[in-house]
From TrEMBL:
The Spermatogenesis-associated protein 20-like TRX domain, residue ranges: 2-52
Domain of life: Bacteria
InterPro entries given in the database record: Ssp411, Ssp411-like_TRX, Thioredoxin-like_sf
Species: Streptomyces similanensis
Gene3D superfamilies: Glutaredoxin
Alphabetical list of PANTHER family matching this protein: SPERMATOGENESIS-ASSOCIATED PROTEIN 20 (PTHR42899)
Protein name: Spermatogenesis-associated protein 20-like TRX domain-containing protein
Taxonomic lineage of the native organism: Bacteria, Bacillati, Actinomycetota, Actinomycetes, Kitasatosporales
Length: 54
């Protein structure tokens, strides 16, 4: 699976670059591929959390 996030500048996208998910950065190509494959686009809004344990 190609790693499309490896060269992004966003820290959020980079932390997901090694996930076993076929992530695409926001681009016309991502939407064109979804149309070609007739699949939905799942959008990540960039949520990240930090947990504090003592």
């Amino acid at each position: 699976m190609p790693n499309r996030l490896a060269h992004e500048t966003s820290p959020y996208l980079l932390q997901h670059a090694d996930n076993p998910v076929d992530w695409w950065p926001w681009s016309d190509g991502a939407f064109e591929e979804a149309r070609r494959r007739d699949v939905p686009v799942v959008l990540s809004v960039g949520y990240s959390s930090w947990h504090w344990w003592q």
